[in-house]
Structure formats: structure tokens, C-alpha cells
Amino acid sequence: MLTVDHISKTYGKHLILNDITFQASPGEIIGLVGENGAGKSTLLRILATINKPTKGSFTLNHLSPTTQKKQIRQHIGFVPQDIAIWDHFTVEENMVFFEKLTWGKKKNKSALQAICKDMELDKWKEKVSTLSGGMKRKLNLAISLIHDPTLILLDEPTVGIDLRSRTEIGNYLRKLATENDKIIIYTSHDMDEIRHICDRIICIGEDPFYYNLLKQTDKEIIAF
Amino acid sequence: MKQIIYTRMMQWKKQWLGIVCWSIIPLLIPICIVLGTSNVQDDAKIPIGIVMEENTSTANDFLDEVKSAPFIRVQQLDKTAALQQLEKHELDSVFIILDGYEEEIMRGNRNQLIEGYHSDLSFAYTPVKEMVVSIVQQDAGRYRAVKVIQDIGERYRVQEQWPVEDMIRKSQTIQKDENLLRSSFTYLGEADSMESGELVSWNVWGLWSIAALLATFFLFDWIIKERTSGVGPRFAFFRMSHRAYLIGNMFIYTIFLGWMNLLTMVVYHYVLHEALSIHLFIVLFTFQLTCIMTAFLLATCFKNAYAYFGLAFAITFMIAVISGAILPIDGITGGLPWLEKWNPVQSVMNGEIHYASFILLAIGIAIWYAGKERLHANS
User: Fold this and answer.
1) Per-residue model confidence (pLDDT) at position B325
2) Is A203's pLDDT higher than 50?
3) In this complex, is the C-beta atom of B270 within 8 Å of any C-beta atom belonging to chain A?
4) Please, what is the average pLDDT of chain A?
5) Which of A131, A140, B162, B302 has the fewest CB neighbours in a 10 Å radius?
6) Which of the residue ranges B95-109, B167-181, B202-216, B320-334 has the most confident prediction, judged by mean pLDDT?
7) Considering the domain boundaries, does residue A44 fall inside one?
8) Measured between CB atoms, does B229 come within 8 Å of chain A?
9) Residues paired with residue A221 on neighbouring β-strands, in sequence order
10) Residue pair B42/B74 in contact by the 8 Å Cβ criterion
11) Cβ–Cβ of A101/B229 closer than 8 Å?
12) Of the candidates A181, A174, A170, which has an alpha carbon nearest to the alpha carbon of residue A148?
């Protein structure tokens, strides 16, 4: 269970996040929407324990980032917006490389390959530099899942990729949340994708554009 | 640490060519320079022929003296072969030590002892002839001094009689020991370089240290490549911080380059006849560590590899100039002794363990490691 409790963030005098409060249960996908600079990535980075909130706090499975940062990080999978993989390695080498450095129990190559296969990333022996953008995005996501995290934070994971890869990633995330009881928090500018994948939507920022765009949907929308 | 070694090996497997090149270059550059210049110097020496019509110790001493001259290459031949080669212009000039040389010298006679031949293309006959004449005069003068000592002994009825050979040897020893015109310098226990007759004497470890500094800078470009690859943020969710990962990798490079230092010492021992000692290894390894820490700290400050390489070249060039490893410029460091103290290359050239920069850089690394990682910054 993720409990976000009155989180605010300011940079100097500029208020980025104002009193964000919500809860997320295992199996739930939450979409974060808002205009550029609204604070979506900042909230993700706070939840990833990379940044500290100015006010408020959160807990993940009763672990607090202030006192148990190391333990809480073992339960978090963060997928950065920029593709963070080795271009000169194959898919296999990337998975093995990051597996060596990650937390948790050791995984053999077949277990690592299974993660990739689940998201239809089948070019196991191919060099990353020869892969399409969609395949790279999938690998970027797969690496973050090696240590089997409880909370998966994705910062625009489908930006700049084709519809097929986008759909495959969306379906995989849906499956991951429901079958493996993961909490997934997801930022995107694609409203169709957000409506299709997410159980709840959090609108951040002063601009009502996104809220108005989404209020027709049957999903629960929380605005901050 | 096992994980860091495994992941580093994975990276090295992909970059093996660059790693091999940059780790072998410091070993090869001094060998190429030293052996290359030695060959060029040999080819540039003036070829002369010496014909020995008599085989006495005085004549042989004369021959050795001529051979030790740094600018000439002496071939000992018979008269016919020597003159044939002179006609073919393979020799610049020919000198024949005539029969009765020792007897005439002992009599104090210094005329008509050597015949000299030259061709119309002999460009160095006159200076070589003057050198030969000066050696003859030196030998004649030495025997004249012996004669004077013997005369004094007879006049004052000295009981003890010194053999002529002993007096000649003593005279030669005094001349060698008191020679103020040619002073010899040695580095790191190597053989007296000026005695070898080389025109240019390289400090092998000076050359190596310059090449090693540059190679270390190039070997450490992985820090920039890995930092700009975007992988850094992932380390927040790994069992070690990004800084711990970088330090671990620096340690692997240190071990690897330490072995390369050892290999370099052994190769130089056999190829360039350099001394082998534990002290020398410590000197080289301390220098190598200084290079590694400099490259490490510098690379962590750069996002652009080309800017880093530019600064690396500038630093190496500056250190090469002020240390005099390539161009012997004593004037700069002579006036600034602190510069010598802070220059790690100078310490290697002097065969000393370098402490000053080493300690400062170690403190720098400790401060860097203890500092806040941007990824983990609690803003």
C-alpha cells in the first residue's frame, strides 16, 4: 500500500506541488497528468526517493523514505523518461549487467529473458543500437523490473514510440498490476492511453484543460 | 566488489581494443624513442677506418680513445680494404697507425706516427684529423711526463722505481677522475649515460611517465561516457551508489595498471637494461595512482569527452615541458623549486616517491566521495 500524505514541494519561492494526498493499493494503476512543468516528474522523483518533499511524506508498505530509504528503494522500480541502457550491449548483456548490480535474489538468464518475453521483447541477442525506439523503451522498463519491485514509477514510458509498442507496453502494465499486485504510477500526455490503462487519474497543476478533457471518463479523477 | 568486477569485464570485452592500445602505449613509446634515436645516432656518426700496423698496448689505447669519441663510428680494417672503402666513399677518412708507434711515443716523438687518407668527398677529415693528433699529443705528453719523473728519480737517487705502465695507468686514472670538461649524470641507477657515447640521453622513466599520464587520461574517458549515457539515475535503485560504483571501478583500473607497471619494468629491464627494484616499482605505482586520481577527478567534472581530452593534452604537455622529460629545460624548474615538488613526473625522473600531489588528490577523492550525489540530492 502506498500512502501519500500532504506532499508539497517548492523550488525557491515557486510552489510546484501543493498538498498532494492519495492512496494506492496493490494491483492499481494511477495516471498522472498535467501540463509541462506542473510537477508530474517531481512527484515521481519524490516517490522514487530521489528528491525530498518540502512538506508532507509518504509510506510504502509502512516503510518511510526518511528513516528507511535503503529498504524502501528495494521496493521501487523507477523507469526514467530518458532511455537509460547501454547502446553497445545486446539486450541479454544489458539485462545481465543490471541484474549484477540490482537488489534482491540473483536471477538466472532464463528468468531475465522471461521478463523480456512477457513484454514481447524477443530480440534477446540483438545489439541495442539496432533496436527500434519501442524495443528500447521495453528494455528500459524491463531493467527496472529485474528486482521485482512493489511500486513501479514510469515517467512518460511511451513517449516517441509507435502505436503497436505503446499498446504492448500498456497491456503488459495492465497484466503486471493485476496478476502481480504491483502499484503502478504513470505519467503521460496521451489521454487515450491514460483512459485505457489507468484505474484512477490524478490531475496536477492549475490548468483545468486536462481535468475538463478527462471528466467525461468513468475513471475516478483527483485534481490537485 | 565481485559484481563491479563482472560488470567492468563486460564493458572491457566491448572496448578491448582501446583498453589494450592505451595500456600498451606507455610501454612502447619510450622503447621506440630510445631505440629509434639510438639507431639514428649510429647512422649519423662519421664513419672512419683505422688500420693497426702494430698491436701494442699504446696503440690499442689510442684505438679505444678514438672509438669513445661520440661523433664517429670506427671500423678496424686492413689497409687495402680500408682504402677501397674510402674510394667508394663508404668511409669518410682512414688513419693508419704505423709500425713502431709505441716506440716513437715512448721516445717522446709525436711526428710521422699516423698516416691519414681522405677523398674529395670527405667532409669531416679535418676535425677528425685534429682529434687524432690531439690523442697522439696526449699520449706523447704522458710518456714525456714519465721520462721527467724518471729523470728526477735518478737525479735525487730515489730508491723506489715505479714501472712505466703503472705511471701511465695512474696518469690515465687521474685524467678520468679529474675531468672537468665532461661530467656524467645518472638517473635511477642506470649505467652512466654519458659514457656510452650517446649524443642524446633519454630519461626512460621520464618518457614513460609522460606517456602513462596521457594514456591514463584516455583510459578514464569511460567515466564521461557512462555518466552521459543516462544510466546514472538507475544507481539509486541498485545495491551500491553511483559513486561507490565509480570508486570500485577506479580500484579495478588501479590493479590493472599496477600489473602493467610491473610488466613495463620487466620489459625495460630486458630491452633497455633498466634496473629492477621494489623501490622503483613503488615510485612508478605511486605515480600511476596520482595519474589515476587526477584523471578520475577530472573526468567526473566533464560532460563533454572532447573538452576533457583537450584539457588532458594541455596538462600532459605542460607537465612534459616543465619536467624536462622530453626537452631538458632546467631553467624553468631551477627557479621554482616548488614546481618540482608538485610535479609527479619530476619525482619519477629523480627516482623518488611522490607524496605532494598524491596526498592532495587522495583528499580530493575522499571529499568527492563524501559529497552529496546529485542523483540523491535532497533539494
Assistant:
1) 66
2) yes
3) no
4) 84
5) B162
6) B202-216
7) yes
8) yes
9) A201
10) no
11) no
12) A181
Cβ burial of B141 (10 Å; 0-12, 13-18, 19+) is middle
The three-state secondary structure class of A112 is helix
Closest among B333, B159, B160, B358 to B254, alpha carbons compared = B358
Q: Which three cell numbers stand for residue A193?
A: 492511453
- All three cell numbers of B79: 689497409
B147 at interface of A, judged by CB pairs closer than 8 A: no
Instruction: Spell out the residues 6+ positions from residue A167 whose beta carbon is closer than 8 angstroms to its own.
Output: none
Beta-bridge partners for B91: none
All domains of chain B in start order, with CATH: 2-37+203-378 (no CATH), 45-178 (3.40.190)
Alpha-carbon gap, residue B280 to B133, rounded angstroms: 45
Tell me which amino acid residue B296 is.
Answer: F
**Better-predicted residue by pLDDT, A47 or B161:** A47
Burial of B114 (0-12, 13-18, 19+ CB in 10 A): buried
Chain B residues with CB-CB distance to A102 below 8 A = 237-239
Predicted confidence (pLDDT) at residue A219 exceeds the cutoff of 80: no
Number of residues that make up chain B: 379
Q: What is the pLDDT of residue B186?
A: 58
Give domain status of residue A36, yes or no: yes
Question: What nine digits make up the cell of B76?
Answer: 678496424
Domain assignment of residue A188, yes or no: yes
- Give the model confidence (pLDDT) of B118-133 as tens digits: 888 888 888 888 888 8
CA distance B298 to chain A (A): 23
Predicted local distance difference test score (pLDDT) of residue B254: 94
B59: amino acid identity, one letter:
A
Domain count for chain A: 1
Give dist(CA B237, CA A73) in Å, integer.
6
**From residue B257, how far is each of B252, B262, B263, B347 by CA, in Å?**
9, 9, 10, 19
Per-residue model confidence (pLDDT) at position B335? 63
Residue A144 lies in a domain: no
Which band of pLDDT confidence, cut at 50, 70 and 90, is reported for residue B217?
Answer: very high
Spacing of C-alpha B230 from chain mean position = 45
Q: In this structure, are strands A2-11 and A55-60 parallel, antiparallel, or unpaired?
A: antiparallel
Q: Which of A2-16, A60-74, B321-335 is the least confident region?
A: B321-335
Interchain CB contact of B17 with A (< 8 Å):
no
Would you call A211 an interface residue with chain B, using a CB distance cutoff of 8 Å?
no
Q: What is the CATH number of the domain that holds A61?
A: 3.40.50.300
**Cross-chain Cβ contact A103/B239 below 8 Å:** yes
- DSSP secondary structure string for all residues of B60-123: HHHHHHHHT-TTEEEEE--HHHHHHHHHTTSSSEEEEE-TTHHHHHHTT--SS-EEEEE-TT-S
- Domain span including residue A211: 2-85+149-223
**pLDDT-derived band of residue B261, with 50, 70 and 90 as boundaries?**
very high
Give me the amino acid identity at B223.
I
- pLDDT tens for residues B326-356? 666 655 566 667 777 788 888 888 888 888 8
Cell numbers for B92: 669518410
Q: Residue A96 half-sphere exposure, CB side, CA atoms within 13 Å? A: 16
Whether B251 has a pLDDT exceeding 90, the answer reads yes
In angstroms, what separates the C-alpha of B308 from chain A's closest C-alpha?
Answer: 22
In angstroms, the first-to-last Cα distance of chain B is 30
Q: b/e for A194-221, b at 16 or more Cβ within 10 A?
A: bbbbbbebbbbbeeeebbeebeeeeeeb
Q: How far is residue B240's CA from residue B245's CA, in Å, rounded to a whole number?
A: 6
Polymer length in residues for chain A: 224
